[in-house]
Amino acid sequence: MHGAEEAPQVLLFDEPALAVAQQWMHKVLSQAAKEPPSEVFKFFRRETTVHIVNQANVFSKTAFSSREDSIQCIQCTTILYNRVLHTVLLQQPTDEFGDTAAEAVQNIVFNTTFQHALMACIVELVSFTATGQLCFPALTARLNALGCIMAMWEALLYVQHTLLKGVDLPDSVQGYLGYMRLRLTEEIAWMQGSPLFNIMAEGGGGTFRPGDRTLLQDFLMAVSQLAMSRAQQAALSLIDRLEELALIPTFVQDCLATVDAMLLKHLDLLFNQHLSRLVSCCVYGITRMHNVVVSIKRVNQAVATAAPHHGMELFQADSEDTAEDTGQPVRDIRQLYNDVFLPRMRAFLQQKERPSEEPKKKGGPAKLSRLPLRSLSAKDINFRPQFQKKRLALMR
């Protein structure tokens, strides 16, 4: 189920697309009513079957019991859960007779983190097909499953793989699976309480594959691809509107190089932060280094255009970061740039700075020396305790 993939892209849903998603859910229910019990139960002894059924029932009832269409939502969740779990088990190691090894079955069925992640993915998807609302990860949070966020990245691959083999999967349903992966990539996996830090420190590994770095590598590749795509679109948008930037042949490449440097050397900036805010800092930093006067609001608008599922409100929201010199919360994107991003990226950006003797189109030189230069001791890898430094090297 692993393999490098394109960065997840968001699909905006109109009313006809949502209607098709609801029709798909009804098809799943009607088809299941005509079929024999799920083949997944062939893997289990009676006591394990009881455990699986009870686990799915409790989780889905907790998610949907207050809804008018709760019975349909619970049934659809159970059907999809059984199908995806069957797919997961079929891909595990086999014994000498070609059957899935009993130990592998036990490792998956009784792995609470993966099971909760798998069910959270499915209830979020069923909720979308029933309501048409893009509310991920609201249900996951209400079910106290945010600690399974990184396992959801893995589980979503299985969900998508399974559903593509079944009843014709509408673009809107497939798009919502992509939307969930995108939200994980750009923000949710980096939120406080996420297990991502520990997974990085321990060297990666899937939920039931300790030591396997592939899943972590795929996730970080998706982060890089998404950040690069967003930065490129924002840079091209600015070039279309500002002649000064259009005269700089390396502007787009410089923006991409800055994003790459940030992810390579200062990946921990993403913790408790939204990817779009840091992409905006990268693009804005390059405009400053080329001595082109562009408001940070205009850069934010260009980045928001590249990510239409969120608006400008993202850039006004308070950050989880604190300024090193004052210890006060970072209140907006400008302070994030000055007090958090620039101290870490100053040396790299200076390499891109236009020589002082080169004529400028507009504005004065970028006065980096007046800005805070201290690193954030709570965030900067270089200021972490020695034992953490060694473990965090895996981020690079």
Structure commentary:
By secondary structure, this protein is an all-alpha fold. The chain folds into 2 domains: 15-212, Cyclin A, domain 1 (Orthogonal Bundle); 242-395, Cyclin A, domain 1, CATH 1.10.472.10. 59% of the residues lie in helices and 1% in strands. It contains 17 helices and 2 strands. The protein has helices spanning 15-33, 46-64, 70-90, 102-109, 112-131, 138-142, 149-163, 171-186, 196-201, 214-241, 243-246, 251-265, 275-289, 296-306, 313-316, 333-352, 386-392; strands at 205-206, 209-210. It has a two-stranded antiparallel ribbon with strand order 1-2. Strand 1 and strand 2 (209-210) form a beta hairpin. Helix 2 packs across helix 3 and helix 10 packs across helix 13 (275-289). The longest helix has 28 residues, at 214-241. The radius of gyration is 24 Å and the shape is elongated.
Summarize the structure.
The protein is an all-alpha fold. Helices cover 59% and strands 1% of the residues.
Order of strands in the sheet with most strands:
1-2
Extended strand count? 2
What would you report as the Rg, rounded to the nearest angstrom? 24 Å
Report the CATH superfamily of the largest domain.
Cyclin-like
By DSSP (H or I, 4+ residues per run), the number of helices equals 17
**Mean of all residue-level pLDDT scores:** 79
Sheet having the most strands: 2 strands, antiparallel
Q: Based on the structure given, which CATH architecture of the largest domain is correct?
A: Orthogonal Bundle
Q: How much β-strand is present in the residues?
A: under 5%
The CA-CA distance between the termini, in Å, is 24 Å
Number of folding domains? 2
Q: Note the overall shape.
A: elongated
Domain Retinoblastoma-associated protein A-box: 22-200
Biased composition (Basic and acidic residues): 351-361
Domain Retinoblastoma-associated protein B-box: 222-346
Pfam family, one: RB_A
